[in-house]
Automatic annotation (TrEMBL):
This is Dipeptide epimerase. The keyword Isomerase applies. Its EC number is 5.1.1.-. One of its GO terms (molecular function) is racemase and epimerase activity, acting on amino acids and derivatives. Keywords: Isomerase, Magnesium, Metal-binding. SMART domains: MR_MLE (SM00922). It comes from Puniceibacterium antarcticum. Belongs to the mandelate racemase/muconate lactonizing enzyme family.
Amino acid sequence: MQIDVTHDVFRLAEVFTISRGSRTEAKVLTVRITDGDVTGWGECVPYARYDETLESVSEQIAGLPSVLNRAALYDLLPAGAARNAVDCALWDLEAKKTGKRVWELAGLAKPGPEITAYTLSLDSPEKMRAQAAKHAFRPLLKIKLGTPDDMPRLEAVRAGAPNARIIIDANEGWSAEVYADLAPHLVRLGVALVEQPLPASEDEALIGIDRPVPVCADESCHDRASLAHLKGKYDVVNIKLDKTGGLTEALALRDAARAEGYDVMVGCMVGSSLAMAPATLVAQGALVTDLDGPLLLAEDRLEPLLFDDSGVHPPLAALWG
């Protein structure tokens, strides 16, 4: 096998801002694994929150042996971006070699479209209201919050999109006291879910707190090993392939989380359609699907995912899987 890694950049349609900072482009790693005359590929987005860089993840992949399979990969790389891109490339490689779709290889039902959230960038209340009004036709909006001035922003978004379902991502920006103060207002404004309100290192404070709006673990949940630490704190887990380390673990985490009584959200980093493609399989039947990365881009892969009124559709074989 030959493993090749490239650094690719996709321009964003607009500046994208969360509580941790702003960006104008998505920087990703594309992994291609060639066996004979067949090549499979996958994409990952290294994330500084987890001490990942393009360089560090590239080095992890460069250290892999030339003979590789998905089972062995789990002993070679930890959960994270590097394993994600390689795992997904191996799935794609097997699909191309066997002439079967990945969902068939994984023993899954044929996938269909899923309604996806559309993320509004963090901005002033006035600008967020304008963003919300522009996208009010979308059934599900996600708001990036996590600052001391969140209520005016939330009120503005609700005014701009009175009929949309709203979810919030606080990006670890609140305290338990802030969440408790905001909770009645979240109910009043029809918020359907709050993602990671507290820092992962401080989420013990969620135990015993009334949760009138479901609380979702993002930074607190990476793979199946995380589940033991979530009891009594969260109602939903956010599965991202760049956290789980690929499709293989993402599917296992989904099943394990549901077996323990959690609802499932499937999310993403800001990447191209190639990064979202495997996640569409995990998102089947999820409480919340948040795979809007390609909608935020000014440019995408040659065979991008289809987004329409039915949601985000599974990939064509020409893209992945």
